[in-house]
Amino acid sequence: MSLLVSMSEVQVADAQATIAKNPFTLVYDGAISKNMAGKVNIHPVTYQLNGIDIAANVYTPSNYDPAKKYPALVIAHPNGGIKEQTAGLYAQRLAGAGYITIAADAAYQGASGGEPRHTDKPAFRTEDIRGMADFITRYKGVDVNRVGALGICDGGGYTLKAAQSDKRLKAVATLSMFNSGEVRRNGFQNSGLATIPQRLKQASDARAQQAADSKIIYAGVASITDEEIAKVSTDLYREGYIYYYRTHAHPNSTFLYPMSNLLDLMT
After folding, report:
1. Whose CA is closest to 253, among 262, 266, 240?
2. Which helix (H) or strand (E) holds 255?
3. Taking a C-beta distance cutoff of 8 angstroms, is the pair 166, 106 a contact?
4. DSSP per residue over 127-142, as a string?
5. Dihedral angle of Cα 59, 62, 63, 68, to the nearest 10 degrees
6. Domain extents in the chain
7. How far, in Å, CA of 17 to CA of 40, rounded?
8. Which residues of the chain fall short of a pLDDT of 50?
9. Could you tell me which of 79, 122, 188, 222 has the fewest CB atoms within 10 Å of its CB?
10. DSSP letter at 244?
11. CA dist., res. 202 & res. 212, Å (int)
12. Which is nearest to 143 in space by CA: 227, 34, 70, 208?
């Protein structure tokens, strides 16, 4: 057995142990395991967005007093990510800086409802950000005149889109921002320019198949071996696979999405 395989098995086991011992199934370092008076606290919530149940976590600052007014932030997770991973990490740390924060699973993804599962459409992801704003602006203690948005990776691109028109968002920041439309269309670093027509044909065929018999054909990465990870040429994807499939794996996180979604993602 190679050293790489041995290390990854330990990492997966560690991630599973982290999920099992954390009542909120948070997998990031320093995650809240219980709410304590005077500390940053976490509050799992659900709400409806266009008829879909959305699962989210709200984080409140130390010594939170609902009678006071606090700035608030909505935090959009990466493609394939969920609220228990990096979005939750930033939500918790920013709550420690005095903000009321919310990290929600996108509709059709994670613990949120919606079918087909893992749907990843730009219009839906943008609406998810507006939905978080809907919820957090009605949360006790939130100053509606001081609401901002943070988008991580794929969520960064969608956050910029949402903020173009949603004037409730007074400040916007992105982290490792990912232009989903450009990358899905052109490939990472324009590596797929020559295959745009073929990939659009695949997406069109997948939609036709779905209409004919409701069968969902998925694109993306369902699982990956250590050897395959080691061969990934770009740091961005290689380190992403290690994070999401090894060190911070969570059963609700996946890099699959319906192939037919490329009709929206690529345009």
Report:
1. 240
2. strand 255-258
3. no
4. HHHHHHHHHHTTSTTE
5. -60
6. 3-265
7. 23
8. 1-7
9. 222
10. I
11. 15
12. 70
pLDDT digits (tens, 9 = 90+) for 147-174: 999 999 999 999 999 999 999 999 999 9
Counting DSSP H helices and E strands in the chain, the numbers are 9, 8
Reading the block at residue 63, the tokens are 């010594």
Which CA distances in Å does 59 have to 31, 142, 248? Answer: 11, 12, 20
- Give the chain's length: 267
Looking at domain 3-265, its CATH architecture is: 3-Layer(aba) Sandwich (3.40)
pLDDT at residue number 20: 82
Q: Which amino acid, one-letter code, is at 118?
A: H
pLDDT at 5: 40
Q: Rg of the Cα trace of the chain?
A: 19
Hey, what are 194's tokens? 């020559």
CA distance 200 to 197: 5
Between CA 91 and CA 102 the distance in angstroms is: 7
Give the pLDDT confidence score for residue 17 in this predicted structure: 78
Q: Is the distance from CB of 76 to CB of 20 less than 8 angstroms?
A: no
Cα(188)–Cα(244) distance, integer angstroms = 19
